[in-house]
Amino acid sequence: MKYLLGSELAGFIKERQAKQVRQLLQAYKIQPKLAIVAASDNPTIKTYVNLKKKYGAEDGVIVEEHVETTASILNTIRRLNDDESVHGIIVQLPLSDETQTETVLQSVRSTKDVDGLSIDSLFDAATPIAINWLLTGYNVELKGKRIVIVGNGRLVGEPLNKMWLNSGLQPFVVDAETANKEDQIAQADVIVTAVGKPALISSELVKYDAVVVDAGVASEKGVLKGDVADDVFERQDITITPKKGGVGPLTVCALFDNVIRAAYKTTQKDAE
Description:
Layout: E1 2-3, H1 6-28, E2 33-38, H2 43-59, E3 62-67, H3 73-82, E4 88-92, H4 101-106, H5 126-137, E5 147-150, H6 157-166, E6 172-174, H7 181-186, E7 190-193, E8 211-214, E9 218-220, E10 223-225, E11 239-240, H8 247-271
């Protein structure tokens, strides 16, 4: 078995980002700032917010958390849109009122939508960027391979599919409406799963010598789990992301890459 260790690649990216932040401070007196807006008491959300705060502190990026109610969240985003000291805004999903999700996401200004979730965002979504970095970093060749993306969600599956189609690849997306789901997955050379359902991908669905990227996240009895079942990790023939330290560390890196890029864009605007 070969592991795809995003945690190893993340160290190199963080070094580069820290240099960029120092350059912004020295040359432009700008310190990148990320505003995280949440409207839910979901414990998984708190875990991810704390992770981003820790990363920002290490990179020199200011991270602010705004815990809002359903009634106040839109006003807070409008205020942050107009705050020139804020370079990136993310809405931590899910919201307590999920019927508001689309309205809230589209309210983030395109120049600050560092999660890449609004229609006209200037940035690619963080997890698809992370998956690309991970596969490229380990020299996983995608051209000519049968690629299956399991899940068509707006955070991973949908933007990743779009990104790969734009690069000339032909991924096949498996979702709730797909006929013969298991057969489609079992034929894949490369599986990227992002459903949030523990043990969804069992060993019998993974062909010999396949590459498996698990970007699914679910909380089961307070423990964060991916989509891949334990029996898959007993295989010696496959290449796979580990249970911890796979896509996750690079997703955070990609998010902060977007924040730093957004901060740099303000220097170009000032020069015009």
